[in-house]
Amino acid sequence: VDAGELRSFLADRLPGYAIPPAITVLDELPLTANGKIDRSALTALVADIPETTEHEPPVGPAETVLATIWADLLERPAVRRTDNFFTLGGDSLLATRMIARLRAEGVTDARLSVLFQTPVLADFAATLTLGEAAAPVPALAPDVAHRHDPFPPTEVQRAYWLGRAEHFTLGGVGCHFYTEFDGDIDLDRLETAWNLLIERHEMLRAVFDQDGLQRILPEVPRFTVAAVDSVEAMREQMSHQVLDVSAWPLFDARAVRHEGGVRLGVSFDNIIVDALSMMVFFAELDQLYHDPDTILPPIGVSFRDYLLAQDPDPAVFETAKEYWAARLPELPPAPQLPLRVDPALIGRPRFARRELRLPAARWRAITELARRYELTPATVLAAAFGEVLGTWSAQKELTLNLTLFDRREVHPDIHRVLGDFTSLLLVGYRQGAGWLDGARKLQEEVWRGLEHGEVSAVWVMRELARRNAAIEMTMPVVFTSTLGVGGEGMGGPSFAEQVWGVSQTPQVWLDSQVGEIDGELLVRWDAVEELFAPGVLDAMFGAYGGLLEWLAEGDWSGEVPALLPG
């Protein structure tokens, strides 16, 4: 037996984690006096094998370039040629950044879908062709002279703007995020910190005109935190408010004083900020609250600069359109969840939240298993969501609407910029031979979609509506993951504790949000309560929590537990 041929044979049939790092060929197996295999002798033999293959450094220019990039992105001191992108903690966000870095190094044929199929460094490097490194791209230059001129919205911002119209099904709402905090809050210090951030971040001074164009106001009045008589009144006023996007501000904060301190209500229209922006805001608010003289790092570029500089290669854009046009006939329908009322009959939807936390030890068990099976943790959670939806919809195939946070690294300060960088991706979840099979198919589809991300889900839904001669086409069940993008502000400011919250999005039935706080997995479902019969959402959410517990146990090849009430 040739060890190299055997390794190739295994690579064609097994995932990378199942291929032994070292293969030793023996003339015969050691036997005991009784003629049985001497396992202790084999164990001793394995212990004597030098770990040369497992710790083999990169070989050749392509592997060396790739290993350097992986070590940087995955925060590793060194990467070996046998290392696996997933087992090192890689995810789709890091993979997208890796592709951009490779192109800067002159590698023009790097593809996400190939990385998914060959995640071992040596195998992936073998698919790459090194060319001449591209000239360093200058950082995006700020256009200070025109910073207050109107500029167009992103496709998602325009969808949020249009979705406020009540003639759309489940319209009449803004994409709005509301949170309540409790603590011994000094409101004067809070106002001071908040106004410093308004001065610092342009999108906190943004408004929209009647044509949907946005612009930054050069000056605004001092923002104050309004006093409210009771928590109930504050929640009634703020939790489902629809802010007028033509008038500043597109956020709100109110407070109720009580014996234990202050209850603070904060709401943001997501037309100006995405989830990462909210984390940046709360992290910086926390710093300025504790020390108003804090000098925050400068921001040398604006959201306006970023949007106006986006100029996709026409050939790449056309290829993406061709991909999605070919995918349209194969795209499964939206989840057909058991509704008790036609969504078109609901005047103004009201959302309610369900929330759970998976303890750190259970969540760590899931993430470690995900790496072993070459899955990203976000894929595992999305696949579990798809499994629950498919069971409750009696569908083996359905389409999920994934929220992505797409900030291209065109400037060193881009991750400190506030704005709505959100994009959407439609992916089909197809139940497989087992849960693990379905999860792997989902991950492959996600990565193929990301590879053609120049075309957004908004365009795809418009094209679906056109082909079906429909007035509108929606994919009303959304999955949002902040895993991998989380920062210091994930849980809000440190001077207060999150105690209640809800979000709403136009034309959405159910939005599942997952993130990590203090090592625990946080899962939130915000849904239009009126759409479902009493108890349905509770049972579905309970089934999702039960499936997460099953995943933490580790037998992913086993039969999925029952997800419907007995």
TrEMBL record:
PROSITE patterns: CARRIER, PHOSPHOPANTETHEINE. Coiled coil: none annotated. This is Phenyloxazoline synthase MbtB. The lineage of its organism: Bacteria, Bacillati, Actinomycetota, Actinomycetes, Streptosporangiales. Pfam families: Condensation, PP-binding. Its cofactor is pantetheine 4'-phosphate. Keywords: Ligase, Phosphopantetheine, Phosphoprotein. GO terms for biological process: amino acid activation for nonribosomal peptide biosynthetic process; lipid biosynthetic process; monocarboxylic acid biosynthetic process; secondary metabolite biosynthetic process. GO terms for molecular function: ligase activity; phosphopantetheine binding. It comes from Nonomuraea deserti. Pathway: Siderophore biosynthesis; mycobactin biosynthesis. Signal peptide: none annotated. GO terms for cellular component: cytoplasm. Residues 57-132 form the Carrier domain. Belongs to the ATP-dependent AMP-binding enzyme family. MbtB subfamily.
